[in-house]
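Problem 12. The chain below contains 746 residues. Write out its predicted structure in token notation.
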Amino acid sequence: MGVIGESVDRTDAIGKVTGRYQYATDLKLAGMLRGRALRSPLAYARIAALDVERARRLPGVRAVVTGKDVPYLYGSTVKDRPFLAVDVVRFAGEPVAAVAAVDEDTAQEALDLIRVDYEPLEPLLDPERAMEAGASLLHPDLGKYKHSYAARPLAGTNICSHFQLRRGDVEEGFAEADDVFEDTFRTRPVQHAALEPHVAVAQVDGFSGRITVWVNSVSPFISRTELADALGVPMDRIRVIVPGVGGSFGGKMYLKQEPLAVALAMFAGNRPVRVASDREEEFTAQVVRGGTLTRLKTGVRRDGTIVARQVTTVWDTGAYADCGPRIARNSGHTSAGPYRIPNLRIDGYTVYTNKIVAGAYRGYGVTEVTWAYETQMDMIAERLGIDRLELRRRNILREGDAGATGQPVVAVGLGESLDRAAGAIAWGRESGPGRGKGVACTHKATGAPSMSSAVIKVNEDGSVVLLSSTVEQGQGSDTVLRQMVADELGVPLDRVTVTAPDTDYTPFDSSTTSSRSTFHMGNAVRLAVQDIRGQLRELNLPGDLSLREAIARQYGARGGTLIGRGLFRPDAAPMDPETAQTDKVTPFWMYAAQAAEVEVDLETGRVEVRRLAAAHDVGRAINPLTALQQIEGALVMGLGSALYEEMRVGPDGRLQNANLHDYKLPTALDVPGLEPMTVEQPHPDGPYGAKGVGEPGLAPTAPAIANAVAAATGIRFTDLPITAERLYLALKRRGAAEPHGEKRGD
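Solution.
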């Protein structure tokens, strides 16, 4: 009905603003028990003794489990993690025992009765030290663990995966360069800080043994696969249902609370068990964006042309791999930046340490490497005396260029994105005292291979139900998919309903991650509509009938249902394991540019971001307002990691700021004037030309702000965040008394 490209109201808007929307944390089932975990206070220790007998005898306790009761390993890339610790704990916060009781107070009382004797070990907290020969091995059995194609473990080390990309001859490129720049960049661990904590409810049927899990996960089919594999049961023995999800940003991808909930439910006598994190456990026991160290070596000609780049990134994955190897792999494709560079050498090392587990975070590793290469781009421009925006323009990928993996790029809207973002802050006009401007750009692939499937049911009255396993987590996917169904079938938007994911009833979808849903599920929806149209054509009905009339004519008074099916799996060519070269590493690339103007208080070091502009190539905005909201939200997240957010780990491996008072997030008062913009460079394979927009939004934010701070102060930061204290100390060390304005223009 002509709703593609229209900013229609969000499907979930009224429920969320009125508080009636049902999240996983709101779920209540008859007889539901409360589960809690006893967590290690030490980052690394042997479990010398574990006594749970007093907890078992406490009235109101229905189950107590330890790692030896559930001797299963799981992991999305490397199967290295036990349901509960067995013999050794590897991070402060790891569960060593769990209880299920009639209420929270009884569960906590039971935990207080458990006795654990630990033999402390020296924790490994520095991933570079962990990589050294002779370092104690956190996983001596690394060579024996099962692992996926995404991981390349190095047995006998703490490196759980090594990704490498080779293109051209990097040494020859450096020899041809007029200048070679070598710099090191760091990012600190940050928290997802989703409003809704992790929660899972599990129940084991006392008759059949079938397991049902209700969980706020964005990857229900992966959760089913991982649980089935860990427990050694067929997939049909496990059902995963996803209620409303109150934010994820990658933190609710793969198994999180499910193993604890299932472990307790197995001993709870047919009763459902709920396990939910409190805010401290969100910080200490779930998942974070891990810290990184990136070394960049870039060779350029005098005119700014980049001829060679070497990138080495060390990813601190914490105590267990989770999806760390896949992060290093997928972000490795992007580590050289959205630039034409003929000679590349990229290495990513995913390294175990005795810290909380690191996993997916919005951008899937692209944010960390963008920080490195976009900061260095400014440093190169300053040294060569080239305008910072112009240096990027000279090197960016354009239509048909080969990217780092050798795949030609198509539908590249990066040039327009750069121009529009820079234009929004009046790039080129001189800044005043204490003020500066910065720009940064990025690119991101969507993960491959992956698949989405959809089923559309047309009811007797012409209303439509879309069965989809795409998870609505606040990004607006339900609304966008409804728009596609309504437009394709020619029915009013309010006659389309989208179901919640349930692995028993909704068809397979790889996951609601990687900015893939609009592209992949959108194509699956269109194929399902084509299936329905094909069925209608075969009925030889008059062409002027409405959908409702066509069904009535076919099925008569007793009614019937028309069902269409669509399955979309784009081509993906395998990568060469030694060079990562491939004709098609991804179905599509996303491009973005952002620009910032800041004002720095040279007495206190406080940075005020005055303006933040972002232009994102989305291919085609199915719902323009929702796309702009996605960008706005990402800008605020990027602002936080640029200026405020860091998880401070003490020398004993314990987190020192595990709460929302000491861990600083941007508030409404910190948010500057935002100018989000969409650039539409339609992709030939996307539905209506659409790509994705969810993840790239915060990748350029930190370097754009840092580059503006450098323009305002002359002080260059190579690690994050740029807190007021750090900038104040840097200003004090320099002894700056006068403003350092940007005199040559931006």
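Discussion. The chain has three domains: 24-121+195-247+252-284, 292-447+579-734, 450-568. Students who got a different answer should revisit the alignment rule from Section 12.3.
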